[in-house]
Give the backbone structure.
Amino acid sequence: MKYWILIAANLRRNKRRTFLTVASVSLALFLFGALRSVITTLDDASKVGSEARVVVRNAISIVFPVPLGHLARLESMPGVASVSWQNWFGGVYVDERNFFPQFAISAERYLAQYPELVIPAEQRTAFLAERTACLIGPKLASKFGWQVGQQITLQGTIYPGDWTFTIRGIYSVADPSFGEDILYFHYDYLDEGSGRNAQPGTYILALEDPNEAAAICKAVDDAFRNSSDATKTETERAFQAGFVSMWGNIGLLLAVIGTAVFFAILLVAANTMMMAARERTRELAVLKAVGFRDGTIFGLVLAEAGLLSVVGGAIGIFGAKLLFDLSRFDANGLLPGFELEWVTVLVGILISLGLGFLSGIVPARQAARLSVIDGLRKLV
Amino acid sequence: MAAIPLSYNLRSLRVRPVATAATAIGLGLVVAVFIAMMALADGFQQVLVATGSPENALVLRKGAGGELSSAITRETAQAIAASPYVARDAEGRPLVSPEVYVVLGLPRLGTGMANVVARGVSPLAFEVRKGITITEGRMLQSGASEILVGRSIANRFANCQVGEKLAFANREWTVVGHFSADGSSFESEIWGENEQFFPAFRGEAFQSVTFRMQNPESFPAIQKALQDDPRLQVDVVSEVEFYAKQSEGLATVLRFVAVFITAVMAVGAVFGAVNTMYAAVANRAPEIGVLLTLGFKPGSVLLSFLFESLLIALAGGILGGLLALPLNGVVTSTTNWTSFSEVAFQFRVTPALLGTGMLFALLMGLCGGYFPARRAARQNVIESLRQG
């Protein structure tokens, strides 16, 4: 398009201003990218669970166990393909700040239910064969420098005492939103080490048909309603979503901040565009005098604003994408699977387009309506 | 060095109202976000810092770290009650509360579930812990299936009004009252009698023992004596420190996020201020020339323009404070990950925080105004006059 030269020349006339405007727009979009990714990551985290598995926990609350006596009944329920169980261990490795999740699992049953956990065959066999063995995630291996064969000791909080495990395998995950910093060990070891006093924390049921999930959840809860330990059963996805919702209304908070950022930068950009247009009143009048139409002038000013904003926005959002991808940022394990999605990039570009339009519309209209006589008068 | 009258700056700002307002509002939004996020972190921390009394000690099983994973047998609780470190009331009863501490999943009003702490306390707990006041209804009656609901959560969960019945642990519990606790996290809990909760949750032990110390100054000695007693196997912590520590992690994260977001926003807004001030300087080149010709020193011009920038920032700071102020007292909630349960808290917009926001605004004004002001001061008189 022949007008690009004109627009480019205009952007070059005050390089400092162009730079500052582009920079402030890109900072805004960088923030937008970061904030939205927190929301999408949390959203994904609440979808990480499968719809084909359901979780049975004690109806009082998650901190109460479900008796091992429930097992036979659960296994015999129609539509249930297999049953496994797990316990939150809550151990401390050297210092409380080294927090990572640990679960005692009914190993053979559990691994069969979770194809998300990929373990080399010989490591899997070695883990299953040894009562005090544990499996660790790749992030734990890199964070603490742990290797297969090494012994580690955790201090129990819920289950008192020192617990020593031998690392027999390092899993990888088939699904990136699955935690990569988990330690799994044998429920039998937990039971033995706590004086045969353990009870499963939650049961996990694999279903024959995921479409039956709602009916099976209800059937399980009905079966135990009048027992001494009533249950609460929901799909693994709903169970995970419950944990994510415990953070409170983070989505709203981030959306409000995002809006404030957007308006603050909109003001900056609009202000700049108005200043730029005001300075050029005479030039615009000259353009009109030599025959440029009002519509063309309108388009020129608007295109300039749009270009500034989109370039700034693209730098910000792609910069954020690049930075987060390269640094593999996950807020110290707080947000596993943190990723700036391409959808976010797209939304960011659309927002910067909108920003450019909004900041350019007023000066563009003023420029289009400028009377040639008034504009030229300022020449003298 | 003669100063340029301040009225000059005020008039200049009025000449370009749109640019001035846009810059001030931009700075104001940054300040508002800063204040709001800090108020969130402060509010959360305040609730947990306010929880507990410096005269009280909390006893947990050795290595438990929190009440949820702790267990104290009846024998241990009795041994502690009989120890000489415990204060006694007028009738000579030890001021001790062995407590059952559990987490309940309760339906929120509206949708969803959330975890709430249910604490079974001894009848003396209301003397051990100061500042507990019944705000509605009456006190618990010993031996009955009755509960008190903290006022922070009374309106957030179903069946928590006085006279209603709440079902948990295979029993129905009558809500006989609501209580306040000086804004502490106890206000987010449900309290019942420990001897009622004990069988209802089929516990084998209490979770913690809280007692009033006979002599709070000698806490280190008390702590050592109880922790070294081989019969007890307990950790003893000051109640105040125990709760304050729970807030550290999340409050630190919130503050870090607040600083990160506002720092990035601030840089963007400062760029805007720089643009505005440069444009102001460029438009007023002839005026500056006149000022310099009249004998004002370049230093005075620099100060004058810096002052103008600070004026814009001041307006932004005031605006930001006003925008954030309505948040004060707004109740929200999050999870205390140590107790695994919901804590309701209020945004706290304190005068100190408003002051910090104002300083922050002025700092942005200073950064945004310095270079343009220097440019103004260094102008060549002849050149700038020629432009007029």
